[in-house]
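Incident log, support desk, overnight shift.

02:14 A customer reports that sequence design results differ from what the structure should imply. Their input is reproduced verbatim below. On-call engineer (initials T.W.) acknowledged and began investigating.
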């Protein structure tokens, strides 16, 4: 295990930098400690100086993060990364490593805030000051990296002494199984995600669409991206790049598939697999359109409108339907065409739907 604490110039890993790192390592050889000041390459705000006692003069002769990166990686390699509000410390380290290029930084993470909540649910506060007071932890220098890392190690020792190994293991497993939300993402976007079916869109810092996905439960599927079971290198890089999430309602399996395929075909998001189609295939190679005008596929309350194998969109009412027919762009996308061909037995002329609406 590695108990880690960072001091920084602020709370935003995109703009702020690390000023101090403290690590307490425990393993077969016992306990070892290491800490260093870090030159952040920018002034330390006055309120941060008052909080930590770290000032510009102290960090001026200190090494930059780039000089420390290899040693930090070695110290943390193969260890459980333990921190208080772990997303903050882990996110800052990930961002610093990302700035250097090459391999990013990835480690299993345990948040002691979440662990305290699970082990001591009878208490309402779980910040570090509350843990220090409640468990009688001895801290030589509060708001200094090594002092706070030592406090976390002491909290772990108390937890081990007060809980049976099986209960402690179960708590750790439950905490680590939950989503590890990145600090650079607005938590309000996650809190507001709906639980209905639809598609979700991930954007990077430059507002580029980098991933499109579909789900029967949008909230559950998006949160799954941050879970431990989604630890592939590609997903880790996707989450590192993610800055904004957008959700859109969609109707039924076909509706979700059509919307997803349309967006992927038209925007080519970096983290979606490119569709396996002939790049020279176009509308001329498609099967002849069997209808005299637009047709529709009805899926629950949604009406998916198609014209000459071009997906125009999905409507929930007659007004939306008319708007799609009148103004939607007719664009042929081969992946969308394949979905429509598979469902073509369900096509009905749009006028038949109009008559159905008029008859109630």
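02:41 Re-run completed on a clean worker. Output:
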């Amino acid at each position: 295990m590695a108990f880690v604490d960072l001091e920084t110039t602020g709370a935003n890993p995109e703009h702020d930098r690390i000023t101090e790192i403290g690590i307490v390592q425990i393993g077969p050889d016992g306990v070892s400690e290491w800490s260093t000041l870090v030159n952040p390459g920018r002034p330390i705000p006055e309120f941060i100086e008052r909080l930590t006692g770290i000032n510009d003069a102290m960090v001026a002769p200190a090494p930059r993060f780039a000089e420390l990166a290899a040693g930090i990686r070695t110290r943390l390699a193969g260890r459980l990364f333990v921190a208080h509000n772990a997303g903050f410390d882990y996110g800052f380290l990930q961002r610093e490593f990302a700035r250097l290029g090459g391999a990013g930084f990835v480690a299993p993470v345990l948040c002691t805030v979440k662990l305290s909540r699970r082990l001591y649910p009878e208490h309402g506060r779980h910040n570090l000051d509350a843990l220090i007071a409640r468990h009688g932890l001895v801290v030589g220098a509060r708001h200094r990296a090594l002092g706070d890392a030592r406090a976390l190690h002491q909290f772990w020792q108390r937890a081990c002494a007060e809980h049976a190994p099986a209960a402690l293991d179960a708590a750790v497993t439950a905490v680590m199984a939950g989503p590890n939300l990145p600090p650079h993402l607005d938590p309000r976007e996650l809190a507001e995600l709906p639980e209905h079916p639809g598609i979700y869109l991930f954007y990077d810092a430059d507002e580029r669409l980098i991933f499109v996905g579909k789900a029967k439960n949008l909230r559950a599927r998006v949160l799954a991206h941050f879970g431990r079971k989604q630890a592939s290198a590609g997903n880790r890089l996707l989450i590192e790049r993610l800055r904004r999430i957008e959700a859109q309602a969609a109707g039924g399996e076909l509706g979700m598939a059509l919307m997803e395929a349309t967006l992927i075909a038209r925007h080519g998001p970096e983290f979606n697999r490119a569709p396996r189609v002939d790049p020279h295939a176009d509308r001329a190679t498609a099967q002849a359109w069997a209808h005299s005008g637009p047709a529709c596929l009805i899926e629950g309350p949604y009406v998916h409108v198609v014209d000459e194998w071009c997906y125009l969109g999905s409507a929930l009412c007659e007004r939306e339907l008319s708007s799609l027919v009148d103004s939607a762009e007719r664009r042929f996308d081969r992946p969308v065409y394949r979905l429509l061909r598979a469902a073509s037995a369900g096509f009905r002329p749009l006028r038949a739907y109009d008559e159905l609406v008029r008859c109630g």
